[in-house]
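hey so i finally got around to running the thing on that chain from the lab meeting. sorry it took forever, my laptop kept dying and i had to restart like 3 times. anyway pasting the input first so we r on the same page abt which one it is
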Amino acid sequence: MKNKKLKKIVIIGAGGLAREIRWLIEDINKECETYEFLGFVVSDLRKTGKFDSKDLILGDYSWLELNRLDNFCVAIGIGNPKFRIKVAQELLLLKKNIIYPNLIHPSVKYDKSSIQLGKGILICANTILTVNIKLEDFVFINLSCMVGHESVIGKGSVVNSLTKISGGVQIGEGVLIGSGATVLQYLKIGDFSTIGASALLTKSISRDIVALGVPSSNLKTKLDRNT
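ok and heres what got predicted. didnt touch it at all, straight out
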C-alpha cells in the first residue's frame, strides 16, 4: 500500500532523458521514499515519436489543468536549454500551484551549507559540487560532472555528463555544455551559448556563441555555424 504522504510527481517529456529522470526519482526513493511517479506529460500529443514512452503518457498540458492534486510536483525531462526555459515559462503561466522540486541523486556530493539552489533543479549521480556554488532555476546537471568553488550556472542551462567546470566560472542563462567538456577557472559564458562535447574552453565567450575544439579556438555565432 502506497504511503498517502508521498508527493505525486509527473515528468514533462517522454523521451530518453525523461526516462532517466524517472530513474533518478526511483533512486531518491530508495534512499528516502518521497515521490509517487504518475507518468509523463507532453506539450503536444501529435508530436510524440518512436523514442517516446507512449504507454506512460498521461496527456498534454490540459491534463495538468484538469488534475488538481495535493503536493503536486513537476520535473522537466527535456535536455535542450531553450526548450527547458520555454516549458518552464509555459507551466508557470498555466498552473500557479505546481511544485518544482530539486531532484538530487543521493550520491551527489555538495556543501549544503554554502550552495544556493533555485527551483526545478536536477542533478544526476556521482556529480561533485564544491563550495559556494549557485544554481539558478531549472538547471540540469547530468552524470559524473564536477563544478568548482564560486561557480554560477544560469537558468535552464544544461551540463552534460563528465563535464569539468573549474572554480569561479560564470555560466549564463540557457547554456548547453556538451559531454566531457572542460571550462577553465574564472571564465564567463554568455547566455544561450554552446560548448561542444569534449571541448576545452580557455577564454570567455559572449552570448549565442558555439565553441568547439581543444582548445576551443574555433568560435562562431550560432547564426553562422551552418556556413
